[in-house]
Amino acid sequence: MADAPYSHGHAGIYDVSPDARAVMGTVPDVAGPVRRGRLQRDGFKTAPAVGASMSELILTGSSMTVD
Asked: pTM score, two decimals?
């Protein structure tokens, strides 16, 4: 392997939910923390709705903008 040429490629973790949607909400059995999982592919397009939804969840305990 020491003399093997490197051709091309990459490696990395691509972690998504089974439906490829962001995971958002409270952490079960833990008071307070709210999480938002990775946004894949179209995350930059959905970021405004995610931000609004998460702020509502943090401030009121539920999201009104997005279900």
From this structure: 0.57
